[in-house]
Amino acid sequence: MTDASWSETTTPPREAQFGDYVELLKPRVMRLVIFTAAVGLIAAPVAVHPVIAVATILCIAVGAGASGALNMWWDADIDAVMGRTAKRPIPSGRVTADEALAIGLALSVLSVMFLFLFGNAVAAGLLAFTIFFYAVIYSMWLKRATPQNIVIGGAAGAFPPMIGWAVATGGVGIESVLMFALIFLWTPPHFWALALFRNDDYTNAAVPMLPVVAGTRVTRNQILLYTLILVPAALAPAFTQVGGPLYFAVAAVLNAQFLWGAWRIWRRDDAAAAADRFAVEKKFFGFSILYLFLHFVLLLAEAVLRGVGLTLETWPVVL
Ligand code: HEM
Ligand SMILES: CC(C)=CCC/C(C)=C/CC/C(C)=C/COP(=O)(O)OP(=O)(O)O
């Protein structure tokens, strides 16, 4: 469906295609979110039937996508102003805001309902809370209100492994809290590195991201500070039942590299960054994604080595 408000001088948007609706669900970011949820489920000490595992991961994926659609519905005005997001389905007129809202709400309800059926009440409750946290607390409130938006709002992105863990165990454990902490503390360096080289976008859109409000010096300091706190939190799972020597050895290298990147960002200023077009910040942002992905690959590898994760022995109750 297209928006009728386009004037004759504007290139009319084309009709929406299936891909536009998929784009509403923020698939590129959400694939890592879904992977962390899957690892939370598999690393848990209670084995799950593959049918339940697949069904519940699908529910979490749909719920994550739904929260992305709700975010795009609410943020359409901001997205229209920023170069990175101006071509999204709503600002480009291919999908209407009402459609995005309807899709976001419908998929949220369906995902939580089916996670309750295939999983349990704790997992479904956590998924509902996570969708609410991203769509309402982060998008509708914090994002436009405070430079601490992504620190507090980052909690939404940290819940998925806890949801996966809750599917398997029916509860919360120290290990799932550590997985939460890993993502929670990783989010500020991940995002602020990007905000440094996308500062103009956020300034134009009047979004109070840290570099806009407090300046780039403070942002560089905060990236290093959060990385210093992140490193011990990222190594801690090695000493629990989900970790082991493999996790520790590889994570130590990854964390040394992350710390080195944060240090390089900290010790330079905007003139140096402008000279190489934010090459260090861009590299650090790219590496942040690999960094988080590999930590969860390590948790998966440790689970495979322990022989936990899936079992055909417990036939799913729901069937
Ligand atoms: C409040 C928390 C977060 C903020 C503000 C944030 C912000 C961003 C932004 C603005 C981008 C660029 C996206 C684009 O090019 O459209 C990005 C990319 C990305 N983020 Fe985050 N992020 C957050 C949390 C997370 C979490 C929790 C994950 C996964 C666990 C994640 C995974 C990714 C990935 C995989 C990409 C690259 C997407 C691509 O391939 O283009 N982010 N993030
Ligand atoms: C299971 C479940 C519900 C998971 C949700 C996970 C979650 C909250 C991920 C958030 C990651 C994200 C896309 C942040 C972007 O911030 P932004 O929206 O300010 O970025 P933008 O400018 O790209 O829109």
UniProtKB/TrEMBL annotation:
One of its GO terms (cellular component) is plasma membrane. Pathway: Porphyrin-containing compound metabolism; heme O biosynthesis; heme O from protoheme: step 1/1. InterPro entries: Protohaem_IX_farnesylTrfase (IPR006369), UbiA_prenyltransferase (IPR000537), UbiA_prenylTrfase_CS (IPR030470), UbiA_sf (IPR044878). The chain crosses the membrane at residues 29-48, 54-74, 95-116, 122-142, 149-168, 174-197, 223-240, 246-263, 284-305. Keywords: Cell membrane, Heme biosynthesis, Membrane, Transferase, Transmembrane, Transmembrane helix. It is a multi-pass membrane protein. CDD domains: PT_UbiA_Cox10 (cd13957). Converts heme B (protoheme IX) to heme O by substitution of the vinyl group on carbon 2 of heme B porphyrin ring with a hydroxyethyl farnesyl side group. HAMAP family: CyoE_CtaB. Interacts with CtaA. This is Protoheme IX farnesyltransferase. The lineage of its organism: Bacteria, Pseudomonadati, Pseudomonadota, Alphaproteobacteria, Rhodobacterales.
